[in-house]
């Protein structure tokens, strides 16, 4: 059995990934600081699982990371821990530099020292997979897609901090030959996403009859990928990805924000019928500064080299996701208690 150190495993993608890896036969050491975005309720079903070892701690604590790598004899690292919310990065960029840049540096240093101490055979199998975002590539117009060779042009403190961490990862491969792989994924959705992000926020507000705050014209476009498909791509890349390389991961499901909100409203209206359609509460709010217009990801390298493709259609994924949030009110309450913003930059979502 292989052991993977996953960072940020109490967050949205991390908790889904921990579950995915354990089901696939891995032992997971889950290092998470439990910031407002981390929630042990997202891992409740794994509480008694001997293949899940949870450690509360900070990726900026390099000594702790090194100690965990040795103590659990790890075969790989998947680095997801991050400050991840663009709106929060506009209000408090310092935390993003600390966790996303300094934290990744500390992870790399610990991994390098550990990797050097491994036997030749073990060191050849070791991997450091760094999970990044398509936002590092900046903003597109109406046409074109990001490939792995698109230059970085980050526009928010969040995407700039992720781009900086990606450069550090690249440099540790080029300079020290650390066996790294970096991924750039489009917007994820699915169960256990913190309810200040677009899809859970709109779902819960639609059900609660609150305003649905849409930035600007609502025409900004994102590519959407179900989190389970992201997890399957990450496992495949961990097992078969090319060392020193980068892979785009995307859902081939571009939608404007307004289309996403209407899809949510339609599902909410089907599941919780009421006199008025929930879309009546759509409210256009002042746009986010530096709001990228369009992201589009070309994931053909991942499909041609490793045979991956997404398995969940956007339409089905949205229905399942809305249904999940409606069926898990206890999780929603416990998560909101951890510092839920409940508003977008332009306005209070409750007003
Ligand atoms: P999230 O905000 O839901 O979870 C982040 C987790 O990291 C939380 O559990 C938090 O407690 C933990 N964390 C934060 N600071 C930490 C620190 N200093 N030390 C240890 N743990 C810390 O984020 P997410 O949406 O699950 O994203 C996970 C990763 O995937 C991030 O690196 C993000 O950039 C990347 N990503 C996300 C998306 C997306 O759509 N959500 C898309 C592409 C890439």
From TrEMBL:
Q: Which domain of life is it from?
A: Bacteria
Catalytic activity annotation: dTDP-alpha-D-glucose = dTDP-4-dehydro-6-deoxy-alpha-D-glucose + H2O; dTDP-4-dehydro-6-deoxy-alpha-D-glucose = dTDP-4-dehydro-beta-L-rhamnose
Q: Report the top EC class in one word.
A: lyase
| UniProt EC number | 4.2.1.46
**Which keywords are on file for this protein?**
Lyase, NAD
GO BP annotations listed: nucleotide-sugar metabolic process
NAD(P)-binding domain: residues covered: 5-321
- Which coenzyme or cofactor does it need? NAD(+)
Give any GO molecular function from the UniProt entry. Answer: dTDP-4-dehydrorhamnose 3,5-epimerase activity
Q: Describe the family membership recorded for this protein in Swiss-Prot or TrEMBL.
A: Belongs to the NAD(P)-dependent epimerase/dehydratase family. dTDP-glucose dehydratase subfamily.
The function of this protein is: Catalyzes the epimerization of the C3' and C5'positions of dTDP-6-deoxy-D-xylo-4-hexulose, forming dTDP-6-deoxy-L-lyxo-4-hexulose.
* Name of this chain's protein: dTDP-glucose 4,6-dehydratase
Species, as recorded:
Stieleria marina
- Identify the gene encoding this protein: rfbB
């Amino acid at each position: 059995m292989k052991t993977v150190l996953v960072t940020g495993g109490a967050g949205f993608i991390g908790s889904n990934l921990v579950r995915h890896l354990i089901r696939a036969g891995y032992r997971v050491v889950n290092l998470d600081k439990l910031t407002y975005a981390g929630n042990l309720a997202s891992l409740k079903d794994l509480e008694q699982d001997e293949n899940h070892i949870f450690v509360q701690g900070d990726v900026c604590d390099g000594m702790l990371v090194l100690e965990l790598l040795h103590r659990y004899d790890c075969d790989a690292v998947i680095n997801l821990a991050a400050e991840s919310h663009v709106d929060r990065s506009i209000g408090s960029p310092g935390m993003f530099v600390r966790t996303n840049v300094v934290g990744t540096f500390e992870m790399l240093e610990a991994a390098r020292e550990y990797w050097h101490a491994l036997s030749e055979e073990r060191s050849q199998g070791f991997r450091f997979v760094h999970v990044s975002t398509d936002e590092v590539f900046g903003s597109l117009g109406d046409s074109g897609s990001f490939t792995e060779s698109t230059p970085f042009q980050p526009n928010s403190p969040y995407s700039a901090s992720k781009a900086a961490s990606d450069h550090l990862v690249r440099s540790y491969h080029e300079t020290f030959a650390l066996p790294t792989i970096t991924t750039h994924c489009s917007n994820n959705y699915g169960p256990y996403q913190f309810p200040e992000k677009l899809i859970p926020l709109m779902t819960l507000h639609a059900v609660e009859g609150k305003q649905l705050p849409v930035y600007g014209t609502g025409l900004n476009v994102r590519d959407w990928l179900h989190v389970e498909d992201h997890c399957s791509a990450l496992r495949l890349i961990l097992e078969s990805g090319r060392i020193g390389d980068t892979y785009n991961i995307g859902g081939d499901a571009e939608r404007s924000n307004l289309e996403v909100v209407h899809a949510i409203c339609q599902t909410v209206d089907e599941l919780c019928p009421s006199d008025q359609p929930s879309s009546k509460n759509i409210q256009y709010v002042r746009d986010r500064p530096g709001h990228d217009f369009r992201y589009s990801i070309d994931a053909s390298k991942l499909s041609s080299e490793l045979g991956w493709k997404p398995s969940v259609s956007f339409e089905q994924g949205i229905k399942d996701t809305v249904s999940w949030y409606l069926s898990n009110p206890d999780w929603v309450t416990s998560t909101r208690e951890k510092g839920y913003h409940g508003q977008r930059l332009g306005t209070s979502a409750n007003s």
